[in-house]
Amino acid sequence: MDRLRILLVNALHCNEYIQTVFPGLGMAYLASYLEAKGMAVELRIEDRQVREALAEFKPEIVAISAVTPNFPLATEYARAAKEAGAAVVIGGAHITALPQQLQPEMDVGVVGEGEATFHELVQRFDRRRRRFLELASVAGIVFRGADGTLVTTPRRPPIAPLDTIPRPARHLLSLPRHGVIHVMSSRGCPYRCRFCVSSRFWGRTRYYSPDYVLAELAEVVERYQPTKIFFYDDLFLVPARRFHAIVERIVALGLHKKIEFNVNCRANLITDEVAAALRRMNTVTANFGFESGSPATLRYLKGGNVSVEDNWRAVRIMQRHGINVSGTFVIGCPEETREDIDMTFRFIRESGLSFFEVYPLTPYPGTPIWDYALEQGLVSDSMDWSLLDQEGAEDPNAWIVVSQTLSAEELFALLREIRSLKGKKRLATWLRNAVREPGRIPRYFRRCLGMARHRWQQKG
């Protein structure tokens, strides 16, 4: 019998850079898991030419992953897949937070981590009838029963240890050579910021072992010859013993001489020892969710386990060790005042950040901010989910604003004001790095060329 054709779709708005800059590793993990289980499947990952892939590939199963702002697009893809005769599975952050959002065009929703659940669904697929069988005994899903009512099965325990999950099937992705490769060395975050979806999606935090991580690094270096690797974990620095073990092995293999690294950090965990280790592995940029320069706002967002003083100290330590600092910030908390926001803008201007982004506080389902917005009548299960795409929205009237002190127009004007500094800071950082380490200039241009070639190939 020929192989079961499965199309894995990332529901993305590809005209928004932030949605396409990172590869769809989630779907690549699903693919590698099926391949490792010996499933007789033919797999394809798509995020751009989805309707063309439906016509050309003729999949029997279409699995779609979507975050909340993109759920309307996922529904469109599901409808097109059903019209093409495929069974449809939906996964990702939105359906996990709101399983009651399973649409008529969707046969099954996967709640939470997807590899084991999707594998079981594929095993239960009846190719002749194009349907999944005996769904009630599958953990971690939502589906419609015989009477049309939604059935949500018990949550599936997270996969442990993580090393049992094969490395992602990057051969199914369109990735650049001599560019930036993204790697996940953990799932989840030990902290639970009020606005964060990730910690709620993954549940308890789990980590790949140093052996697994180094094997993956060796694979991507051999295949793609990247100039930079981005550890896209929510937090790369924990547990401390594992972090230092990874650093030592990177150095022992000489990867630090070939590749620059970019990592996500947290200010209260930064010491001179940690910064020295990051620099030793050739970390050029450390990313922080600083969130606010206002003590009151920061306590609201992060629960009091990190302070504004921690943020200032982390920047100084990183700069002392020659590491660029990138920070993200949030404005528009319910009781945040203009004075609070001014404190954030002062931090951005005076702390010496190399790069920064500022976002309006957005009430994503599954977070305490969503619960607050729900109580205030600002959101509902029947709302237009695209209204939560506040990064891509240029019309402030299309924003969901949870602030009690500032209007959407005022927040929009403040964002435009502070974002005007981004280009200047980026140029200043590039010039400073070029003077300090001129040897990095050829590598920088090589990466830019690789990324430009990759974007051209994708457009073509």
Structure description:
By secondary structure, the chain is α/β, with parallel strands linked by helices. It folds into two domains: 4-152, 3-Layer(aba) Sandwich (Rossmann fold), CATH 3.40.50; 175-444, tm_1862 like domain (pyruvate-formate lyase- activating enzyme, Alpha-Beta Horseshoe), CATH 3.80.30.20. It is 40% helix and 17% strand. It contains 17 helices and 17 strands. It has helices at 17-20, 25-36, 50-57, 71-83, 93-97, 115-123, 198-202, 210-224, 240-252, 272-280, 295-302, 308-320, 338-350, 368-375, 408-419, 422-436, 440-459, and strands at 4-10, 41-46, 61-65, 87-91, 108-110, 125-126, 131-132, 141-144, 150-152, 180-183, 186-187, 206-207, 228-231, 260-265, 283-291, 324-331, 355-360. The chain has a seven-stranded mixed β-sheet with strand order 2-1-3-4-5-8-9, with helices on both faces. Strand 13, helix 9 and strand 14 (260-265) form a beta-alpha-beta unit. Helix 2 crosses helix 6 and helix 8 (210-224) packs parallel to helix 9. The longest helix is centred in the last third of the chain and has 20 residues, at 440-459. It is globular, with a radius of gyration of 22 Å. The model has no long low-confidence stretch (mean pLDDT 91).
Task: Label the overall shape.
Answer: globular
Please count the helical segments. 17
What share of the residues does DSSP label as strand, in percent?
15-25%
**How is the biggest beta sheet arranged?**
7 strands, mixed
What is the CATH C-level name of the largest domain?
A: Alpha Beta
CATH topology of the largest domain: pyruvate-formate lyase- activating enzyme
Please give the alpha-carbon distance between the first and last residues: 35 Å
Low-confidence stretches: none
| Class inferred from helices and paired strands | alpha/beta
Biggest sheet: strand arrangement:
2-1-3-4-5-8-9
- How many β-strands, per DSSP? 17
CATH architecture of the largest domain: Alpha-Beta Horseshoe
Structural domain count: 2
Computed CA radius of gyration, to the nearest angstrom: 22 Å
What value does the average pLDDT take? 91
The CATH superfamily of the largest domain is known as: tm_1862 like domain
Helix fraction? 25-40%
